[in-house]
Amino acid sequence: MECIMPKSPCGWVKKITVPAPSLQDNTADAERVFGALKPALSNGTVSFDMSLLRNLPGLLRKNDGEFNCTLCRRQDHWTVLDLSPADDPAPPIGAAIDLGTSRVVLRLVDLISGDVLSESSFDNPQIAIGPDILARIHHAAEKGGLAALQTLIVNPLNREIAALCHSCGRVPEDLLLAAVAGNTAMTHLFMGLDPQWIIREPYIPVVNRPDLVKAIDLGLKLNPRARVFIFPNIGSYFGGDLIAGILYAGLHQKEETAIMVDVGTNAEVVLGNRNWLIACAGAAGPALEGGVTKIGMMAGPGVIDKVQRVPGSRQLRISTIDDLPPVGICGSGVIDLAAALFMSGMLDIRGKLVPEQCDGRIRYQAELAHFVLVKEEDSGIGRDLTISQADLDSLIRSKAAMYTILETISQSVGTALPDLASFYVAGTFGSFINPRAAISIGMLPDLPLTAYHSLGNSSLGGATHYLTHADCLAEIDSIRDSITYLELNVNQDFMNRFSAAKFLPHTNAALFPSVAREES
Amino acid sequence: MECIMPKSPCGWVKKITVPAPSLQDNTADAERVFGALKPALSNGTVSFDMSLLRNLPGLLRKNDGEFNCTLCRRQDHWTVLDLSPADDPAPPIGAAIDLGTSRVVLRLVDLISGDVLSESSFDNPQIAIGPDILARIHHAAEKGGLAALQTLIVNPLNREIAALCHSCGRVPEDLLLAAVAGNTAMTHLFMGLDPQWIIREPYIPVVNRPDLVKAIDLGLKLNPRARVFIFPNIGSYFGGDLIAGILYAGLHQKEETAIMVDVGTNAEVVLGNRNWLIACAGAAGPALEGGVTKIGMMAGPGVIDKVQRVPGSRQLRISTIDDLPPVGICGSGVIDLAAALFMSGMLDIRGKLVPEQCDGRIRYQAELAHFVLVKEEDSGIGRDLTISQADLDSLIRSKAAMYTILETISQSVGTALPDLASFYVAGTFGSFINPRAAISIGMLPDLPLTAYHSLGNSSLGGATHYLTHADCLAEIDSIRDSITYLELNVNQDFMNRFSAAKFLPHTNAALFPSVAREES
Fold first, then answer.
1. Residue-wise pLDDT tens digits, B360-414
2. What residue in A sits closest to B30 (Cα-Cα)?
3. What is the ipTM of this complex?
4. Which of A172, A286, A375, B461 stands the most exposed, by the fewest C-beta atoms within 10 Å?
5. Angle CA B114–B119–B125, to nearest 5
6. Please, what sign has the CA dihedral across residues A18, A20, A23, A27?
7. Is A236 helix (H, G, I), strand (E, B) or coil?
């Protein structure tokens, strides 16, 4: 009797034909809808929200039996979120949200076609409480602090969602589903869950799998029946943003072993294939302080983001954002610069500037060597633009830390870095890194450049993937459950590796066969 | 590690030991509770309400690991409603509610021991809108009518629940679960669901299985996480009150075929055993109008509720409620009276008064014979207390209707009425009927008196059963699913049976061997 055709690749919206009641079949309205849905749902049970039940008789009798039914799923239980006439021109929409510590990115998705409708981002206003998550967690422990932090993230989300809907000619009531990926502390603050035990030994979150939550229970002003999927975490150090990233990269589905590095506030690494996944986070003790993301300044107009060496010479070509006179250098620019300096012999294998190779571009301030990258007359700041030996030392520590972590995690499972089939770099910063330069300084392993893939915002990508794949919950659970978390043990062995990685590209040059330095 | 002992016969409250977290096991708080619960739950998944999750870290760390965990269940999904220290002296409580068209009865139950804590009842204030359900359904279709009707039932429920809790030294926040049984229209009004399609062909409810609903979604002021179980209906004519009644009587579990008659606003009949159930409702067309419950007046002080014949004579002994001077006669009294009049020859087999046998106790008003039951000087109303031939005719039609329905339903499955092992009479009215008198006039079949059982308020009994048996949901579903609803077809065959049953006790005296009338 019912003609079921899944209307969408996303799978949230089922096209159903609800049979009219008769004296021979006096099944109630709700159960007739359930019956029509049954062939479309692989298994499990279905329920209605009371608010939809209250509209159901009128809705069913005003239309001719053809409906789009939007559902969400929790394990084997489906909840009907909305029922609209099949010819309704406005499809239900979903919101993918990357809940970053510094920046929040959101994206509206058509829940039928899976098309991205629009996207926007804003600085996380919790920065006012504390730029890093630790300060916020301490603030949450104060009276009213947690509620204030939750409001600080939920209110602007409501504003941005409303604006984003408006820009597409829609209203927040059309939003039936949201998918949120963030680190463990951020998702706790978002849900109003006490985060204080996350930072105290033994580092315990309130919940690992928040699963589906009602939007109104979080203060989100979407459709009153809207549900919010919050990506699961593994613990304090491994959040839903990374699970979302793995989902997006598809690491868990590949035959060959691949690695994903998410260069966000922390640097997190996941290694694996469809049989196993192992992960670790870069916040691994004082040796690694600083981190990859602390290199250089934030990208912005006039900031140097690329540095290239004129082949066969010591001349450098710089590119700035928007082609403006240079005002500073960002992380990807610093990596490029270090590679260029090293490849042309201006930097030695210890990462120290070699004044006699630098053609008079070295200045000293308080006995500290500075390399003049842009002269006063060409710069946008009215003076020489320089990089100091201290900045370069910091880069060397960071690149050594990165390589050591990559080496440690791969050795822990007996995989050699050169054997990796694919290397995914996630995160906004990661998407600007030039792998060739990063290989040259020994920050990333010497794989063919074709093995490197930039994922961009993989957390947002994973959240979007959830919205466009109604059946991926089991996949997400299986990712979560299959990850082995490697606690980085900063022992002598680790420190030995770290010391070796502090050379350019490495004390063991055989690890970097492609790095052929021009000897001067 | 966890020592699980189901703490209660009810099964809602599990005693669990939540292990402390460690660096070796950094599972989140919620998932540690899930883990501790797992051995106590046969199967399925578990989730927390956001509000409980927000209290969880403090709760777990304030106590020593032993908790009482109260859960509710929806198919294979459990929801944690509350977690309290194992030594909490105040057990969680539940409320059983019989949502009657005329009267609402509620009962508080200890969800650990299953003990009934207290009970109260109140007239359904929706009576002000309309004494019968039809008037209310019409009112619900008017603007604001449905909301007004819902408020009319929810507000006094909140008041009564608060008062009942107070009387036990408790507060409504201690109430975690409610079970509500009512007819289909009443439960729809209670949920704020549009009931108008229930009374229009083809008579379609909004929902058959409302299942578990959040108390706050219904406006009930219990614990903010409390859930309300609403008994399922089969359709417009067969409500959750009857499903609750079957559950309470245990009809669905018995080897031998039994019958249950619920004499409420309608007279509903269920026949069956553990293999099958068949049901019909007494609202079966104009022939039966009036119904059994319309006989006599409401029971109250001074109302005659029993009439006995002094054996071997035509003298009648009456009993009144509270032994006050008689002011009227209620239904059970009328049946007693008719039996006494018939057995002593004052009423003939057609149910007509026989003046010459009545020793001068007949008066005429507008040519209508009246039997003087109590003389002016003995009555509490300052005049003779009489019953008219019209009243008796009405009784005869009602008793004939009842017997015809019983005969029709039993013949539909090939069971003879005398073969019934048990005959359950439910409903407040039913609990006062004297089976001997009802048999004498041919209202009930001629079974041994030991076969008759009065159930009292079986709807409330079933709701209480739910609260004391956490595992009975499948049983309730199976009752609902196994009932065949017999649409009473008022055809010639039915009318022939009805005509035969209009005699006292019946045209076929062989059906009533125990009725030995004293011939005058």
1. 999 999 999 999 999 999 999 999 999 999 999 988 988 998 899 999 999 999 9
2. A207
3. 0.89
4. A286
5. 135
6. positive
7. coil
